[in-house]
Amino acid sequence: MELVLGIAGGLSAEETLPFVRSLRATGYAGELLLFLHRAPSGLAAALRAAGATPRELELAGVPDPISYNLARYPLYAEALRGREGRALLADVRDVLFQRDPFRALPAGEELHLFLEHESKPIGACLWTSSWLRFRYGDAALPPLAARPVVCSGIAFGGAPALRRFAEAVAAEIDPRLRANNYMAGYDQGIVNRLCHEGALPDLVLHPYRSSPVLHLGNAPPGSVRWSAEGEVVNDAGAVVAIVHQHDRHPELAGLAARAGG
After folding, report:
1. 136: number of CA atoms within 13 Å, CB side?
2. Which domains does the chain have, with CATH numbers?
3. For the chain, the helix, strand and coil percentages under 3-state DSSP, each to the nearest 5
4. What pLDDT digit, counting tens, does each position of 96-130 carry?
5. How far apart are CA 206 and CA 40, in angstroms?
6. Are 239 and 98 in contact (CB under 8 A)?
7. Which of 139, 156, 229, 254 is 20 to 30 A from 58, alpha carbon to alpha carbon?
8. CA 27 from centre of chain
9. CB contact at 8 A, 35 and 57
10. What is the pTM of this model?
């Protein structure tokens, strides 16, 4: 059974429903499990009505000092334990779907991750370089500075490979660090170190320009491309299955509004 996993801790219905509705609009008929924490009144019911399965949790130390970005990895690892088939791990607030990911993304059982725009390698990306140094110290940056940024927002593949990925990231979380405010996303520093140092042997990395998933956080202003039908395409002209970080580009406001309707 296909499975999409996400965490909607601290999010409102307005921030969460476009993710669910845009996924279901693609024809995706598999499982969609969203972990909730301190959910506002009515969110769980709205998610169920939209086609998701919400699971409210009590999470000690979350979101301060442990961010939702970090807390999700042990949850994902447990949810994937014993599963077969393929799965998708995804950010929620700033993710929209244009195609069913299980029809549009690679069919293999490997772990698939997707690169950000090459104009900002790790050393030039303020966020990723800061997260890497926060977790591993200043000496960790120079060996990886010229490498492309791997976004932690989307991971896809066979459930066993994704479970191993989630366990590997969870094992690198340092409970002594206070991961709040700007350092909440330091899981991306972990992901980049694991990827570029060869710690994930079943990994397939997808270059930005031909990727079926567009991470737009580092994409230059005005670089988003459209099809004649008004769908976001990659530089090869193919409609992408997933648009991530759409809120960084004002021209995508209409896309988000349609998904939330």
Report:
1. 20
2. 3-205 (3.90.550.10)
3. 40, 20, 40
4. 999 999 999 998 899 999 999 999 999 999 999 99
5. 36
6. yes
7. 156
8. 20
9. yes
10. 0.97
